[in-house]
Predict the 3D structure of the following.
Amino acid sequence: MRRGAPGSANLVAAGFALTALAYGLARFAYGLLLPQIRTELELGTVAAGWIGSVAFGAFCGGVVVAFAAVPRWGARKVAVAAGLCATAGLAIMGLAGSAAMLGVAMGLAGISTGLASPPLAAAVGRHVPHDARSRANGTINAGTAAGIMLSGAAALVFAAAWRELYLGFAVIAAAITVWLWHAIPGEEAARPSPTAAGMRPRGLLSLGLAAALMGAASTVFWTFGADILREELRFSDQLVALAWLVLGAAGLVSVITGAATDRFGIASVNRIALVLMGLALMSLAAASWASGMAFLAMGIFGAGYITSCGALLLWGITLFPARSDLGIGLPFLMIAFGQMMGAPLFGALLDASGTTLALSCASVMMLCAALPAPHRLRKGIEAQAEPARAL
């Protein structure tokens, strides 16, 4: 397929849409709409927290399933399965009348998120021209920002009608699922998985450590950011939604991650993104003196977080050129692991020492995530390893 061929562009666009659906609508809308959900269903804080945590476990399970399913069933079927899980989860969310139904819905949403990225990476590795793959993966990863933007805009305007919002999201999800089936080409029977000789696992520990540290530090925003805005800065629900809209809009800058890593190298791009997130954490700490800093912090964090995710997944692909689905899935799995570890750690620190110290510690941890960066992965290293067909 030639660079810029319509089929390649359609695949990337559909992948962008699936990422926006799985990571934005199915995953992040819950936190934004939680106040309204809790009021209508009379959910306690503990119940709401457990329901949200279901998505993490389901995400991890989805990633593991995708590792095994992509070589066996092909990228198109697994991507469509992700779309179907998101559609079902969003529909159940809109119809939920109990905590149990919400838990099922969030579980399906988490599975969809875990299933989404590995087949998209495999499809890009197989059907996108070699010199365009980094840009294609970076563009697809930026779909998260679009999903966050849509969730924030919807919560800002229609927060009271959360059921109708979720049902509307389900309709969008169904349309994206059909699009995926037509955009991702079908594949022949699976080939045997490559041997370890076809991979580069030597740098896997460094990648895992960098991803886990970044994930742990980022949980201050993802898990506690809305509460900090509401309780410390006295933001209304509308202002919180607007802050998330700013985060998503700034995150769209990550669409250039692939081109930036081609030019400057994965290590440099990831370090810049980590520094941006460290600054964002400190800016949020300073927002108690100037509330406008909170919007600046959200914007800087959105740009840094999604760019770093893109750099980490490209790093993973260089380690597993013969299985790009593994290369993308493993960093995301380690980010999620870090978030699982970071949530209780920073929750306890917030309770014991307050917001300023917790945010400062998270900022230091974010900067530490740059230490295990791939020092020898510079511009052009990706081209030295031919990304083998994922299937």
